[in-house]
Amino acid sequence: MKKNRIIGILGLGLFGSALARRLASHGIEVIACDIVPDHVNEIDEELTIGAIGNFTDLDFMRETGFGNCDIIVIGTGANLEASILGVLNAQELGVHRIYCKAKDQRSAKALKAIGAYQVILPETETGYHLGDLLARQSVEDIVNLDDQTAIVEFYAPEQWWNKEMNHLKLRQKFDLNIIGLRQKPGEILNTKFPANYTFKAGDIIVAVANIQIFDQVDYLERI
Which residues form the RCK C-terminal domain (predicted)? Predict the structure, then answer.
């Protein structure tokens, strides 16, 4: 039987509480803490365990059950010293997949140096993400999978209308692999479409794209 993942969240500000709610909505067990009682009480019903206390205190973390977590996320980046202690405490409890929020590159570098699995710079990453979207007017959304690959969601360009998908040779020409279609925003993704599907105005396409090619050639406008 597959074991349910348990994720710990240290700090329940806007970032931490949003993360906790989303994880809980996916049925993931969440253990979380904050030193502010209201932060814990506000989402306590959605948590597996919600505790009021300081995650820089190793005994508190142990007693709360953070040692049972598969992943720990440090959701507050304002105090670098506290974040470092959070990482060290998580490691002491045997948890080594630790994600940390950081306020700047200096903090991110320090957290990586002591063993954080991944460091998140929310404002920087949000800025990059919005910049990518605004630079490509045809694109509705873009999610980077790694340094070379992204999932993009965009409306079918006018140049594609009334043309069959296989005739456009998108994979061969531009390394663009279409994985689904929608007729309107928010609709369930249709992944069962024929190779000769004919694009029409309003089609929303979800595809895996090569970022390097995406940046070099705006194929959405030139096909």
Answer: 137-223
- How big is the CA angle at 101 (ends 214 and 72), to the nearest 5 degrees? 110
Say yes or no to pLDDT of 1 above 50: no
Closest listed residue to residue 30, CA positions, set 11, 58, 2: 11
Residue tagged 């990482």 (tokens): 87
Q: Indicate if the alpha-carbon torsion angle 70, 74, 80, 85 is positive or negative.
A: negative
Place of tokens 């694109």: 139
Topology classification of domain 138-215:
Alpha-Beta Plaits (3.30.70)
209 pLDDT band (50/70/90 cuts)? confident
Four-point Cα dihedral 167, 172, 175, 181, nearest 10: 20
User: Per residue in 147-191, pLDDT tens?
Assistant: 677 777 888 888 889 999 999 988 888 788 888 898 888 788 888
Which class does domain 6-128 fall in? alpha beta
CA dihedral sign, ordered 75, 81, 87, 90: negative
Closest-CA residue to 61 (of 23, 100, 87):
87
